[in-house]
Specification:
With 370 residues, the chain is mainly α. Helix content is 71%, strand content 3%. It contains 17 helices and two strands. Helix 2 runs antiparallel to helix 5 and helix 13 packs antiparallel against helix 14. The two termini are 22 Å apart. Keywords: Acyltransferase, Membrane, Transferase, Transmembrane, Transmembrane helix. GO terms for molecular function: acyltransferase activity, transferring groups other than amino-acyl groups. Pfam families: Acyl_transf_3.
Length: 370
């Protein structure tokens, strides 16, 4: 890859590309670290979450829960593409088609594999209900594609609104998310909570739009520090004396900050955005070097494929352990900690092989997946 190939295309931002790639990588590593499996006396496999036992690690999700950053990167990208769409005289529909094609193309190969995996689990001796739950687990990453699809459809409307009243957009979304949570916490209809799937993630998307139009690049550093400190204080209050759990990922037996998202994730996104802007000068200097930028470009080109397939690789790895008569170590045990580096290395190697196969199949396949 020559120097010219490493230069970002006009309208791109190296920091945004790095944040997008890094956020998906953190999601994958977080899932690999948290996931575990218990084997019942009748041989059934029951999924478990390491954070259920390792309560001291739950505050780490304030760093590891990076989906707000990914939606921010999406806001920047949508603004950039929309400007290009308008400049070339194309329509709202053309914008939506181009963005959705890019978003869903990696899923065309993945989705048909899910029912096949469920059938294999059933043939291997798992009850039909467990095989079905496995298939549901594998399609869980598609929640992001579904939510982001909705955002893409309405993005031109949001961008026009932002151009007229940017502060009003953020305030409306934040107040709406707060009202939804108040309804949820006071015993309102559970379906109301689903509205935050739009309100919270669109809020993060609009923060990316603010960065894309240059509004955030000029914010003084002392103000960014104040915003970061305020966000941290708000999270402490919301999850301490407040009604929300500390974990920013859903855990059994407690209110979930993630499904659907609460105002905690909205506040977390504000804090993470401030932190990234504070680190921006250093990160841009680092990304100006050939090796780090080449790594971002390389991973960014396969990031969505990595995101879609990482749970299948995890399931296969657990299946291989159990087939060899080696149940996974108890989360938090000395064996668990000592084997994490090797576990992550093995999963990375397996996922790299899968990504290579998917890329080769995609190149050979005609039509939209090409």
């Amino acid at each position: 890859m020559g120097p010219a190939a490493l230069e970002p295309r006009p309208g791109r931002d190296r920091l945004v590309d790095a944040v997008r790639a890094a956020s998906l990588a953190v999601v994958v590593l977080g899932h690999w670290l948290m996931a575990s499996v218990s084997v019942l006396a009748d041989g059934r496999m029951v999924p478990a979450n390491a954070l259920t036992e390792l309560t001291a690690l739950r505050p780490a999700t304030w760093v590891l829960q990076v989906m707000p950053l990914f939606f921010m990167a999406g806001g920047f990208a949508n603004l950039t593409v929309w400007r290009r769409t308008v400049a070339t005289g194309r329509s709202h529909g053309a914008f939506v088609r181009s963005r959705l094609t890019r978003l869903w193309r990696p899923a065309l190969i993945f989705v048909p594999v899910v029912p096949v995996t469920g059938v294999i689990a059933y043939v291997a001796g798992q009850p039909a209900s467990d095989a079905a739950r496995l298939a549901v687990l594998l399609v869980q990453p598609l929640w992001f594609l579904a939510v982001y699809t909705g955002i893409i459809v309405v993005a031109p409307i949001l961008l026009r609104w932002h151009a007229v009243a940017p502060r009003t957009v953020l305030a409306t979304l934040a107040i709406g998310a707060l009202l939804v949570d108040l309804t949820r916490l006071t015993g309102g209809p559970p379906v109301v909570a689903a509205a935050n799937l739009a309100l919270v993630w669109v809020f993060a998307h609009q923060l990316g739009v603010w960065y894309g139009d240059g509004r955030l690049a000029t914010v003084p550093r002392r103000r960014l520090w104040a915003v970061l400190a305020a966000a941290l204080l708000a999270l402490v209050l919301l999850t301490g004396p407040g009604p929300y759990p500390v974990s920013m990922v859903g855990l059994p037996g407690q209110l979930s900050n993630m499904s659907p998202p609460t105002v905690c994730l909205l506040v977390l996104g504000v804090g993470q955005g401030a932190a990234i802007l504070l680190a921006r000068p250093f990160l841009l200097r680092m990304l100006g070097r050939p090796a780090p930028w080449a790594a971002v470009r390389r991973f960014g080109s396969v990031a969505m494929t990595v995101y879609l397939w990482h749970l299948l690789v995890l399931v296969v790895a657990f299946g291989a352990l159990l087939a060899m008569g080696e149940p996974p170590p108890e989360p938090g045990s000395a064996t668990w900690w000592l084997t994490r580096p090797l576990w992550l290395l093995a999963l990375t190697a397996g996922l790299a092989a899968v990504v290579g196969l998917v890329a080769r199949f995609g190149r050979r396949s005609p039509g939209p997946s090409r």
